[in-house]
């Protein structure tokens, strides 16, 4: 198990380096290759030649590309100073960049918004796993019945309806008309009930979309597993149906579920853009949309790196859970 863990950690480190290199290339190397000026991209919407030249000197964009990449990596680890003439701007570690448009480091800006996105992703994940797995298992066990058709019909609706549609409908009914839920986000440290009330609708709306996909996947996988020889053997030995389903069938069913869970949850940690925009949640997704509108590239780079890191780390956790569910994975 230790050797497996070491291999996976090494793979994660390599992947994070590759992601950082690709991100750097997209925002710093490709613009030069197509004849664009990276300094003009980082200065914001309104820029004069003096401001562009100042950004170029501060960010070292006139240095060789390998030197720029080294400074980029070094800033993440130990921090960085942006110097132009006698003006020096310090960015403490981890320095994911400095927004000269807002005159603030990127990392503290993202950290302020990360709890909102984490709260949204975690709460919705719990709901969609409970709802999706339950609906999928029941549909597989009651194949062809009214329960199966009803559950899959709801799942089809959940997959088909875009979240900005279901979100607006939920707001119109449960907030504006019935007044059951608040539409304003309240930080957890200020009020637990306010935090819960402000996230209830986003949780349910986001979970409805994902629960539908997980229900369909669970049903398909469960039907395949129930036809396996070892399931028939377990039933022939006289094991009760809850034991056969819970201990044997679910163990195999969870493998593909964990695979997509790592991708989905990691991507949501980087910002559930549509959900946060629909419900005006001050998370990473909302920050990314606003930064794209303002052409604030350092913020966009920071969100990109956090999203990539979240996906890689989530998949590491999934790989470790594989080893718990199926010991044979440890030898892979």
Characteristics:
332 residues, mainly alpha, MetI-like fold, two-stranded antiparallel ribbon, 13 helices, 4 strands, globular
Give the helices and strands, then pairings.
Blueprint: H1 2-33, H2 38-42, H3 49-59, H4 65-78, E1 80-84, E2 87-91, E3 98-99, E4 104-105, H5 106-141, H6 146-160, H7 163-177, H8 192-226, H9 229-236, H10 241-269, H11 273-278, H12 284-294, H13 297-325
Antiparallel strand pairs: 1-2, 3-4
Helix pairs in contact: 1-4, 1-13, 5-6, 5-8, 5-13, 6-8, 7-8, 8-10, 9-10, 10-13, 12-13
CATH class category name of the largest domain: Mainly Alpha
Total number of beta strands: 4
The CATH superfamily of the largest domain turns out to be MetI-like
Global morphology = globular
Mean of the pLDDT scores? 83
Radius of gyration: 24 Å
The second-level CATH architecture of the largest domain is: Orthogonal Bundle
Question: Which blocks of ≥5 consecutive residues have pLDDT under 50?
Answer: none
**Fraction of residues in β-strands:** under 5%
What is the spatial order of strands in the main beta sheet?
A: 1-2
CATH topology of the largest domain: MetI-like fold
Compute the number of structural domains.
Answer: 2
N- to C-terminal distance: 11 Å
Structural class: mainly alpha
N-to-C SSE string, H for helix and E for strand: HHHHEEEEHHHHHHHHH
Q: Biggest β-sheet, characterized? A: 2 strands, antiparallel
The proportion of residues forming helix, as a percent range, comes to: over 70%
Count of alpha/pi helices: 13
């Amino acid at each position: 198990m230790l050797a497996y863990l070491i291999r996976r950690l090494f793979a994660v480190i390599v992947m994070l380096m590759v992601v950082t290199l690709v991100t750097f290339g997209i925002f710093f190397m490709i613009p030069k290759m197509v004849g664009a000026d990276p300094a003009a991209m980082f200065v914001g919407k309104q820029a004069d030649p003096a401001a562009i030249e100042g950004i170029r000197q501060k960010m070292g964009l006139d240095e060789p590309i390998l030197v720029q990449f080294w400074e980029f990596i070094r800033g993440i680890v130990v921090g960085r100073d942006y110097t132009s003439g006698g003006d020096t701007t310090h960015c403490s570690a981890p320095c994911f960049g400095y927004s000269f448009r807002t005159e603030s480091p990127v990392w503290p800006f993202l950290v302020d918004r990360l709890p909102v996105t984490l709260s949204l992703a975690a709460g919705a994940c719990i709901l969609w796993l409970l709802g999706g797995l339950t609906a999928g298992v029941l549909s597989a066990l009651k194949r062809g019945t009214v329960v199966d058709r009803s559950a899959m019909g709801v799942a089809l609706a959940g997959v088909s309806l875009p979240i900005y549609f279901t979100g607006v409908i939920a707001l119109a009914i449960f907030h504006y008309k019935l007044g059951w839920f608040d539409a304003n986000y309240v930080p957890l440290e200020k009020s637990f009930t306010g935090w819960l009330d402000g996230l209830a609708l986003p949780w349910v709306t986001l979970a409805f979309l994902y629960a539908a996909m997980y229900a369909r996947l669970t049903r398909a996988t469960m039907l395949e597993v129930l036809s396996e020889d070892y399931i028939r053997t377990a039933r022939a030995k006289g094991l009760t149906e809850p034991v056969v389903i819970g201990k044997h069938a679910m163990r195999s069913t969870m493998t593909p579920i964990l695979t997509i869970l790592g991708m989905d949850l990691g991507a949501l940690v980087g910002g559930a853009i549509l959900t946060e925009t629909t419900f005006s949640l001050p998370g990473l997704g909302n920050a990314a949309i606003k930064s794209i509108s303002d052409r604030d590239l350092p913020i966009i780079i920071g969100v990109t790196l956090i999203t990539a890191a979240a996906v890689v780390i989530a998949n590491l956790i999934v790989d470790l859970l594989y080893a718990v569910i199926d010991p044979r994975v440890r030898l892979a």
